[in-house]
Structures are given as structure tokens and as C-alpha cells.
Design brief:
Length: 152
């Protein structure tokens, strides 16, 4: 007994459109739910992290090379003198500061070499502050209050 299916042409047309429609729907669902944006963001983070790792490895190689050059005692002593002004025991450190030449005159360089200014010609200088003290017998508390004037 063979079962025969009698499918009309109208039903065949519906079935023929059902397969492509289901495939398109499946593709649309995968594309819609596929986290493409998240994957691209994570790929960018991975690239940035890889670059940071490469920079740190280069710095590590440079520091290793510097460590090999400083490994000798003489080199370490030279760097200690240059960077930290350290000297060996029994030595003295003398620093020669850049000075002014005699041709530049007495007005330049160290202010200790400049001539004194007369009080009458010091118009721009602020006047000294004088505090008037009462001659009465104020006692301990009045002297304390006068001493702590910044509270007023």
C-alpha cells in the first residue's frame, strides 16, 4: 500500500517559498543576536593591551641593558657622583657655582656685591610696621593677647 500525496500547485508554491524564507529568517536572527559590536570592542582592547605589553617589554630590555652596564663597581660609583653628588669616604665634595665676570660690573650676579641703598632713596620699600604698646599694667592675659595678634 503506497500512500500518495496529492499536492496541488498552490500548495507547492507555498512550500517553495517556505524554505528560502526560513533560511533568511535564520540568517537575520543570527545577525541580530550576534554580538558583533562587543567583539569589535574587545578586539580593540586586546590590540591596545598588546601594544602596552610591547612597550613594557622594550622598557624591560632597556632596564636590563642598563643593569648590565651598572653592574661594575666603578660605573656605580660614577653614577652616584653624577646623580646624587655622593663621594667616597675621605673625599670632599666641592661645587663650583657659575660666577659673574669682572667685566659685567658690580651690579649683576650676587646681590651681596651691590652697593647699599640710602634710606631716603628707598621710596618703593614698604614702611616698617610699628606696634603701639600700652604702658599700663596689663598683666599676663593682655600680654598674651598682644602676642597672639593674628587672632584679631
Amino acid at each position: 500500500m503506497a500512500i500518495t500525496h496529492n499536492i496541488t500547485t498552490k500548495q507547492k508554491g507555498r512550500i517553495q517559498w517556505l524554505y528560502p524564507l526560513s533560511i533568511v529568517t535564520a540568517i537575520a536572527m543570527v545577525v541580530a543576536w550576534f554580538p558583533l559590536g562587543t567583539l569589535l570592542h574587545q578586539q580593540g582592547q586586546l590590540s591596545a593591551t598588546a601594544q602596552q605589553i610591547a612597550v613594557i617589554k622594550r622598557e624591560q630590555q632597556a632596564l636590563s641593558a642598563q643593569q648590565r652596564t651598572i653592574a661594575t663597581k666603578a660605573e656605580a660609583a660614577m653614577l652616584a657622583r653624577q646623580l646624587y653628588q655622593l663621594v667616597n669616604p675621605g673625599q670632599s665634595l666641592i661645587q663650583v657655582l657659575p660666577g659673574t665676570s669682572a667685566a659685567e660690573g658690580a651690579g649683576s650676579g650676587d646681590p651681596g656685591y651691590q652697593p647699599l641703598v640710602a634710606p631716603s632713596s628707598a621710596a618703593g620699600a614698604p614702611a616698617p610696621v610699628t606696634h603701639s604698646q600700652s604702658t599700663g599694667s596689663g598683666g599676663f592675659f593682655s600680654r598674651l593677647v598682644r602676642t597672639l595678634e593674628f587672632w584679631r
